[in-house]
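Before going further, learn to read the protein records used in this course. The integers have meaning only within a learned vocabulary of local backbone shapes. The record below shows the convention in full.
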Amino acid sequence: MTGTIVIGNHNTVNNLNITAESGSTLTVHGGPLPDPVRRPSISQLPRATAEPLIGRARDVHVLQEAVRARQLVQVWGESGVGKSALLRHLACTTARGPEGTAYIEAGGRSADDIAQAIFDISFDAPNYKPSREVLKEHLKTLRLRIYLDDVGLDENELRRLVDMAEHSTFVFTARQRSAVEGVHAIQLAGLTAPAAAELVAALLSRELRPDEAPVVAALRDAVDGNPLRLRRIALSAATGKGLPGIADLPGLLPALLNKLQPQERDLLYLLGSLSGAELAHRHLDDLLGRRDTGALADGLVRHGLLLATETGYSCPPDVAECVLKSRRTEFPADRLCRAFTAWVEARDTTPDDVAAHYQALDVAVLRAERSGHARLGAALARAASPKLALSRQFDAWGSLLGVGWAAAKSAGDKAGEEFFLREARARKRAIGRITQAAVLGIEAGVLMHELVALHAHMAGGQIAATMSAGTQAIPAAIPGAVQAPVTPVLTHGPAATSVGTAHAHAATSVGAGHAHAAHVARPVIDMSSASAPSHAATHAAHASATAAQGPPPIDLSGSAVHSHPATTSAAGTSHPALTAGGAASAKGGVSALALACTIGVAAVLGVGAMAYMNDQPSPSPTVAADPIGTPGPIDDTSASADPVCASVLPDLSSESGTFNTDSALASSAIDSYNTAMASYNSGSTSTPPDDSMFLTETGTVVSDLEAFETTLQEATAQAQDSSVSSDLADMLTATRDIKSQYESFGGDQGSSQIDTTSQVSDLNSAWSSLQTDCGA
């Protein structure tokens, strides 16, 4: 799979050249900017269903009236109450918008991916992904009626999406009532008693007997008229001795599953193992070795045991839990990966097909990593990456890169790790300022499996992740000399447990005839809101101090203390050798990069690993000991705040996120260099490793700090309030000092040390003061 996507606007336009083997590259666009042409007929409707919509005539009328009068209408209610069925019916039967209708299944999608989907439906612009600003310019010209099913966006993201298409009408479903101002929220209740009786009779294909009517009415009250549960009641009557009693309801689901045919239970077992992700009937056929799974699935949908979507089928959480509990295992992850890889690589599988099922791919890769098949998971992610990129659903692509990186890391696949990190870098540079996240979205999308233990039922929430770059020692390399294997010498102090505080790690390297010690502490620049609850998420491996031939240490992972490389000589030769201090990875496939997660229904604007969870307790948000943690753009400032606040706060948040990402990539480059150097020292390879990537990534970090410095300079010049001006000046001084110390790596070799701990502390303090003075 190869292809090119044009990305950007009139000021910044790039080509993203995608290849399956060598990865994506970004080049300056050499031709004119694509000119999107609005389609003459904008229409994307849901598939028609054979079953009529029972008992919802009044709800349809209320919604139609609301849609005519409002721009933003929500249908909310509990799982299984019929929100999706009502929205599909409404999309198919209500008058089109002035310029057309677009129905989109939004479950698991970010605001940017939804906006791109609306653009693709409305405009003929192949292989074009506009920047966020240009995308808004196109979408605001539309006057559509847009239906979004299963929206999981937070308030800010939903408002931003609506503002992008400000002249269109949105109708969306969600489980919880939206608190966004201007939303006309309509709660969908269960069916009335007559409607419940009609539904049960339709499912039984006969009229209810006189003795059954009061039983159905009582059962309807017991389940609050929930259509999904009423369907199961009807199935019980069709396969058993009659309608169940109210006392039978708690055990109804297990009893129903026991009465199913083996092939039906196998189908539920497969879908129940995918944490709420959906599969098309083609996948079901391939994985189960049958050709009738579509008919089987439709029958299970009719009786409330599966859910049907536009692109396939998914398993309700309670059914999945019951099935997996009875099987005491999950569908084999290796079979999932092999089948999905073959499907992804098939010529008739389009990028849009892959995007529609990316959640299933994510789950398969994650499960493969956890079950000892990490290499298969990494291969699947690598195969799917180019097609997912060409779908222009870049947040979904970022999620896959994240789980792919984690799998490659767990498998010890260094080439795979580098591939996913290169893809993440290309993606980040392609979308530029599009990624302003609520917390820093990591471009490599790194997942730490301790923090991403997927619940059995995934659906609406997302994980926004922050990465703390851990490193390992880079042993000495002495070409031409016979050496004993070099053992990294790392001694770790306590990990940082609160933002803005750095705790020291000690790294000791003892060479022939000299000793050197460096205290390594990780700076944490806290660009997150002060109110966000957090606790440390860190891990480190400990190694005892061991004699090893090597020069003074260096840490490019964002640690507060760095040492410049020195030269170690042996047998008349010399070679610069580097040692990186910091958090080393634990054995057993645990990532060397720590991950901080915020789990809930908030959308991820930055790209990272995204898990879609349902029906599980909300864990406490976790923040890692990380160089910089950033919030999303801060839109609200007090009326009396300095006007510069409106632009400088989101700009600084975004740029600090870029610094964090690039410093993490530099740390990964160190990790790869470490491994290659260890192989060279042990004699496994005969060629010293190339340090060009290491130096390039470090140069990028300096460039990020220069951009941060420029923003601060411009804001300081524009500031009107003396307090704001003072805050910006303090941040500028600290930033220049940090940049100066990073730049010292390019000077003369020696044993000089770089300690940014105090500058980081000053930067945090000034940032906090700036937020206060800006009224944020």
Notes: Residues 433-639, 746-752 have pLDDT under 50 and may be disordered.
